[in-house]
Structures are given as structure tokens and as C-alpha cells.
Here is the input.
Amino acid sequence: MKCSVISIDLAKNIFQICGLDENRNVLFNKKVKRSALLHELRQHEPTQVAMEACYSSNPWGRRIKMLGHKVSLLPAFAVKPFVIGNKNDRNDALAIAEAFFRPTIRKIEVKSLEAQDIQSLQRVRERMIKIRTGDANQLRGLLAEYGVVVPRTRVALMNEIPIILECNEMELTATARKIIRRLYQNLQNQDEQLDAIQQELDSLVKDKKEYKRLMTIPGVGPVLASAIMGSVTDANTFKNGRQFAAWTGITPSQHASGDKNRMGKITKRGNSTLRRLFIMGARAVMNWCTKKDTSLHRWARQLKSRMHGCKAVVALANKLARITWSVMAYKQDFDINKACA
Here is the structure.
């Protein structure tokens, strides 16, 4: 059976698949068991398969591509407006198929296993940093309740704990010392695990040409470069650098009607991790803009002189995102002489 597109509403055990012909008429819309999904797709000629981007869409996408089909993943927020009627699997599968034909919806590429590994390590690293920060804050708070005030930085806290445990003049009971020692050991273990994860992440990306090209961009360090490689499979899926910056959410929101056009705060759409890292990288570049005399740093100084510092940092992050897209799309190192020329 020849279909123009086959949409799949993914689930745990029972999937819903919907096929449309060239005139967008529904050929079938039926339920398929998980174990029979690939067998069902083998019965159709190679065509376009559309799914919502979710936790299981990448592995299924890789398996379906091996059958000869082309796979596109659609953002969930872009599919929701096309659901007509009650919320059920039939309507969801049909909505995915209809959203696929919308020219303004950007399709998401299926991640490779290598990109999946990089992103998985990034996510584990982020979660462990949050846990470590929580434990450090709890330890600092418990010490304050016993009248012991330590510096705010984590490094200073780790240096002070052995001294505090050995000091007998402080009002710390035996139980309190056990609690402090236990949290201190947890922090030490978390530091070791984070170092191991970072080393494993570096070993995956350090020899890649794309990683070396990204590292030539000011404000892009090892963490941001590996995060980009894990999140962006192909830069050419974005039309230009402006679209890539909009995907990361570093563009102002717009409210336009008639002859009125009002720009607001950044949209915060897309990948929140990349947005945060781009802003952190831009802040590092902005801090050094008075000490370097390149075209990019001169542009940053002019930007900082006419607007609030935080707003200038976000604008610079937008510029770095566009530069990043250019480096990835054209496969060339960053040239400081061309930036902001």
C-alpha cells in the first residue's frame, strides 16, 4: 500500500498508526502492538514516517530508518493544535499526520547513538550537579544551626569541614559530627563521579572535528561544545543562524498587530540547557571585552554602553548562537576577522 505519510502515536504497549495518501485522505488508522510495529511497517513501501518527539522516538526512529523509511520527529507543542475532538489515540495519530504537512513546523532529526551517548552523559552530569549543590546547601544550613558559619563557595566549604570536625571548641554533639561527616563524604563521592563522567564525555568528543571547530568560538568551552554536539544532529535542519538562535529561545518575543510591533522578553523556547550555557559563555566574553581589541569584543563594548549589562549579555549570546550555526553549517573554524565586521 502506497502512503504519502505514516504517522505513529507512540506508547508503551499499543501504538496507533495512521496512513494518508497523496490527497491527504485517511487510508487506515489502527492499533498495533509494540512487537508488531516493525512488521506492520515492512508491509508498506518506503515513505515518510512522522512521530512526536518523546523519550522513545529516537530508538524507534533508528529502527524504522533501517527499513528504508524516512523519519521525522515533530515537537509536541506543534502537534497539539491539530487535535480535533476528544483526546484519544486515533485523533492523536491523525493530528501528527496533519502537522507533518505544515511548512512552518521544523522537523527534528533522529539522534544517532553517539549523539545519544553525549546527551545522556550531559543529562546525568546536570542532575548530579543539582544533587551536589543541594547537599552542600543543606550541610551549610545545618552548620549554621549549630552556630558554625562557613564561606559560601563549595571549595571553601570542603576545605573547612575537616577543620570543623577536628575542633573540639565548637558546640557540635557526636550526632551532629556524624551527620556532617556523612554529608561531607557524599560530597566527596559526588566530586569523584562528576570527574569520571566529565572524563568519559571528553573522550567521546575530543577527537571530533566538529568539537575542535566549536572550541574556536569565543565563549564556547568544553561543556557547551559537547552539549551542542549532543543536541544538534545536523545544523542544516535550521534555515539560518537566526532560526537556530530562535530554537534555543535567545530571541525576543513578538506581539504584532496591524502597524504595531512590540518586542518583549526572550521566548525561552527550545533547549533550556543550551540557552543557559550560551548565556554563561556570553557573560565570560563580556567580562573580557575591555581587555581585548577584536571586532567581536568592540561590538560587545558598544552593546554594553547603550543597554543594561544583563540585556547586553543575552544579545551577545544570540550572536554567539548565530556564529555557532555558521561554524557547524559551513564546517569551518571561527574567523575573528569576519565576526561583527
